[in-house]
Amino acid sequence: MPRDDVPGIKQQLLADVPGLLSTLFRERKVARLYGEHRVGTHGALSVREDGQWYCHESGAGGDVFDLIAFALATDFKGALAFAKGYLGQASKVIPFPKSSARLSEAQDANRQRQKAKARWLWNQAQPVTFEGGDHAGS
């Protein structure tokens, strides 16, 4: 495939960001918030109209092709093949994703970090003591 096709494909994808997100992340809530598209129950993945995106849980980000590669756990070539299939330009049918496993993995990793931090804070806690015989409620 000539490299010249990439900008045109990118522009076509950007013309339908909400549809692309709904396809890539079928099992996730997709909403518009603060001028961005947000994916996930807490809006962990934010996508601007220009296709730039950032995952607040994994720290990943990039352009629309990086987003497709991230969602499908593939490389640029796989993302481009998916994009062509999505736009109806592929000579063979490219299967749509069954789920957004990559985002789920990032969310699970974030939950594990949060639990570990909570455990550490709990273990560091000390009882509250009052000096001079004063105590709460007297």
Question: What's the gist of this structure?
Answer:
Helices cover 45% and strands 12% of the residues.
Compute the CA-based radius of gyration.
22 Å
How many strand elements? Answer: 5
* β-strand amount: 5-15%
State the secondary-structure class.
alpha+beta
Helix count equals: 5
How many domains make up the coordinates?
Answer: 1
Largest β sheet strand count, sense and barrel closure: 5 strands, antiparallel
Mean pLDDT: 79
- The CATH topology is given as DNA Primase, Chain A
* Euclidean distance between termini CA atoms: 80 Å
The percent range for helix content is 40-55%
**Strand order across the largest sheet:** 1-2-3-4-5
Order of helices and strands: HHEEEEEHHH
> In CATH, what is the class?
Alpha Beta
- The CATH architecture comes to Alpha-Beta Complex
Features:
DNA Primase, Chain A, 138 residues, alpha+beta, single chain, five-stranded antiparallel beta sheet
Question: What can you tell me about this protein's structure?
Answer:
- This protein has one domain: DNA Primase, Chain A.
- The chain is 45% helix and 12% strand.
- It is built from five helices and five strands.
- It has helices at residues 5-14, 17-24, 64-72, 76-86, 101-124; strands spanning 30-33, 36-39, 45-47, 53-55, 61-62.
- Strand 2 and strand 3 form a beta hairpin.
- The protein is elongated.
- The mean pLDDT is 79.
What layout of secondary structure does this protein have?
Layout lengths: L4 H10 L2 H8 L5 E4 L2 E4 L5 E3 L5 E3 L5 E2 L1 H9 L3 H11 L14 H24 L14
Antiparallel strand pairs: 1-2, 2-3, 3-4, 4-5
